[in-house]
Amino acid sequence: MRTKLVALAAIVAATALVLAEPPPGVHGVVFDDLNANGVREAGEPGLPDVVVSDQDEVVRTGRDGRYTLDAAGGYGLVSVSVPADRRVVGRWWQPVGDGQAPIDFALAAAPASDTFTFIHASDPHLGPDVVGRLARVGEIARARKAAFVIISGDLVRDAMGATEADASALFQLYLKTIATFPVPVRSALGNHDLFGIDRDASGVGPDHPLYGKWMYRHFLGPDYYSFDFGKLHFVGLDAVDIVDRSYYGHVGAGQLAWLERDLATVAPGTPVVTFGHIPLLTGALSAWGYREGMGQGDTLVVVNGKTVFRHVVDDTPDVMTRMALVDWPLALGGHTHAREVLTFVSAGQPTRFEQAASIVEPFPNDPIPMRSGVTLYSVRGRVIEQGEFIPLDGKSGRLTTFARGYGGPPKLQRRRKPAPTGDEL
Fold first, then answer.
1. Is 224 within 8 Å of 236 (Cβ atoms)?
2. 72 in a domain, yes or no?
3. Number of compact structural domains in the chain
4. N or C, which terminus of the chain has less Cβ within 10 Å?
5. Closest to 297 measured CA to CA, from 247, 355, 243, 360
6. Using CA atoms, how far apart are residues 237 and 249, in angstroms rounded to an integer?
7. Model-level pTM?
8. Interval 82-91: pLDDT, tens
């Protein structure tokens, strides 16, 4: 009898424990932060129809501003897709934690304008010697009254072969530098931002909690996400993947599924701008020529027994299939260290595939070195005008070539240079 009573008590206790636990999933509220202090106070209502995601599920807040996510398929992060008429107070992303505490997002009203400018920059390869060049981008943003800045990858140099302490210090330096910018900065993951994959140099393995993309997520949040500004919808893509101790251009099935869900929230007729690091389409491969024996700079890489191009996204056709359902006028990339403009017509619509020049100075052994600089885009309603190239400095003294839109042909300085190593990309 005593044994039965003990067993019954255990069942009752277990039942009570289950009933006391909160329902599964991440929950919270997106609210109107009327005094912009980041704390929800009496009289601050929830905001309906705001998109929230865990990089798997994509949901809208209810009439009271509340949302719920299963948070089972993402990477332990929740983010809000900031609407065009709002600005985030605090961070636009939060770690899930134990999933029990609510994760709220404070949004304050922001002046809504259909006419604005933004800057696209890439490849700062940040180290102590490049801080001034990255800070210069913030100065340009101030001078040209840009609404925000996009930096599409290779934020630091170099997390691939760095120790945890050194790589963390570089990411902290990046955050400290962009904190001085007068406008928000949206970042993308680059190959040099992958922590530890050069395992011989870094001394870490795949079992390290910050290995690969996890250090980027730790410091900068989701590696793919979206936001609205003006009449445009912006989607940041993770265009880099890992194969053994190296990298290649890849989006992947999970991100493609998320992209479909995100695009389903976009109103018909809304232009969508994508940005990422490794280009979806590029002419750089033909400009560089075939390369092998250069390690990370090799043209080709073998992934799951299949040989693919390393320096361009290998599943771009899958991306284009999803993007064919929306208006896609502009796809921004980096990685090539060259300002590049291509127009590709697919599914009846022209898309401009434009790569940014680098923030870091051109390397002496770049195959086709370009001037360092950023691109300023002017937007009027649903129209994105041709970008304006803004150099970060004057003549570099290096052999420099220019694409159309760079302000005319330069005077070329002929000099002999060593064969490229390919490690700079």
1. yes
2. yes
3. 2
4. N
5. 247
6. 11
7. 0.87
8. 999 999 999 9
